[in-house]
Design brief:
CATH topology of the largest domain: D-amino Acid Aminotransferase, Chain A, domain 1
CATH superfamily of the largest domain: ATP-grasp fold, B domain
Helix content: 25-40%
Shape: globular
Number of strands: 23
Radius of gyration: 21 Å
Number of domains: 4
Distance between the termini: 47 Å
CATH class of the largest domain: Alpha Beta
Length: 425
């Protein structure tokens, strides 16, 4: 098969890495890709927002299958445009991608189908939002309704902080159109984990869980980011909890979307809070997580490509995937100034040396190649990933590789997987 992956970040590098290993893949392209992806796929200089150019390229290059990585083109309808052109595609329609594109839409699905989630209200008026905040009190969570690159969430510890977040979002100054309405919800306590499942619109093929690290600083301090690291498996998500998530959250959602006439075909990524009264849905994403995808791809024993094709073909009824029992861990290296104002253009050296550490894979997330040099070209720039029999060993390998990378203008959290480490480690 001739396969095109759309996107250019760490998630897409991991997907390309996995797909390139499939015996079914004769030729792999990635648009627009990045310098790391160039090692396993032919780069195509087309942005993920250029839908008609992507359709035209898929036709001219005789692409058999397209895998869409990022959320923005999914919410904007890229999968619909490709399917309308007769091109088999992995990824939900724009109507189904509302599960990520509108938090208010997802909350309404949860309300109608008794899917456990935080109590919430939606607002497009500043005065009403502030009145609600004053009535409920803090801690409280304020979220931009639309896409905000993983940064549109403020966990406010005071009503003043919540008021400021609501005002900034609804004014359009903080997240533009994504903040034209906000969802304000109760603060949930517990462990936050991620769970993934492929669905063909009716059937489900569960994947595995992971734990992300959203805050920029060690000990979960500082502002929310797109994710500073992840590991899988997580001890907090037991097999019995996974079954509860599948039966009480994933299956009802898949059925609800099918009943609406907008079946969800793709990967459902459920962000969960494991509360004292059971798992509750924080939000859905309509694509693989980033950096969770990276650790999932490392742990996946099965061939990824047939699973993605079966999802697109509606053929997941009897599909099963196998996983390595070892731990996979990802450390995100970000550019100074991230998440607010990352500084681009600094040179990164030592990548080949770091990649030689046992069990390590380095996925590029925000890099560019210039005059034979690798330069930082984004906020989250590298995913330094490692596999090992235990979480401690995986963490040691990943940080050993990080320390071999010569990039003074980069930084990372030094405590990835801290919740899973033995006391005192």
């Amino acid at each position: 098969m001739r396969v095109l992956v759309v996107g250019g970040g760490g998630r897409e590098h991991a997907l390309c890495w996995a797909i390139s290993a499939s015996p079914l893949c004769d030729k792999l392209f990635c648009a627009p890709g990045n310098p790391g992806i160039a090692a396993v796929a032919e780069l195509v200089p087309i942005a993920d927002s250029e839908h008609q150019r992507l359709v035209a390229f898929s036709r001219s290059a005789s692409i058999d299958f397209v895998v869409i990585g990022p959320e923005a083109p999914l919410v904007a309808g890229l999968a619909d445009h490709l399917r309308a052109a007769g091109i088999k595609t992995f990824g939900p329609s724009a109507a189904a991608a509302q599960l990520e594109g509108s938090k208010a839409f997802t909350k309404e699905i949860c309300r109608k189908h008794a899917i456990p989630t935080a109590a919430s209200e939606s607002f497009s008026d500043v005065g009403s939002a502030i009145a609600y905040i004053e009535r409920i009190g803090a801690p409280i969570v304020v979220k931009a309704d639309g896409l905000a690159a993983g940064k549109g969430v403020v966990v406010a510890t005071t009503t003043a902080e919540a008021r400021q977040a609501a005002e900034e979002m609804l004014s359009g100054n903080r997240f533009g159109a994504a903040g034209a309405s906000v969802v304000i919800e109760e603060f949930l306590e517990g462990e936050e984990v991620s769970f993934f499942a492929l669905t063909d619109g009716h059937n489900i093929a569960p994947l595995v869980g992971a734990q992300d690290h959203k805050r920029v600083g060690d000990g979960d301090t500082g502002p929310n980011t797109g994710g500073m690291g992840a590991y899988s498996p997580t001890p907090h998500l037991t097999s019995s909890l996974e079954q509860t998530v599948i039966e009480r959250i994933i299956r009802p959602t898949v059925k609800a979307m099918a009943d609406l006439g907008t079946p969800f075909q793709g990967v459902l990524y459920a962000g969960l809070m494991l509360t004292g009264s059971g798992p509750k849905l924080i939000e859905y994403n309509c694509r693989f997580g980033d950096p969770e995808c990276q650790v999932l791809m490392l742990r996946l024993k099965s061939d990824l490509l047939p699973a993605l094709i079966a999802t697109a073909d509606g053929a997941l009824a009897n599909f099963d995937l196998r996983w390595h029992e070892a731990t996979a861990l990802a450390v995100v290296m970000a550019a100074a100034g991230y998440p607010d104002a990352p500084r681009k253009g600094s040179e990164i050296r030592g990548l080949e040396r770091a990649a030689r550490v046992e069990g390590v894979e380095i996925f590029h997330a925000g890099t560019k190649s210039e005059n034979g040099k690798i330069l930082a070209n984004g906020g989250r720039v590298l995913n330094v990933c490692a596999m090992a029999p235990s979480v401690g060993a995986a963490r040691e390998r990943a940080y050993r590789a990080v320390d071999l990378i010569d990039w003074p203008q980069g930084f990372c959290r030094r405590d990835i997987a801290w919740r899973a480490m033995p006391a005192g480690a």
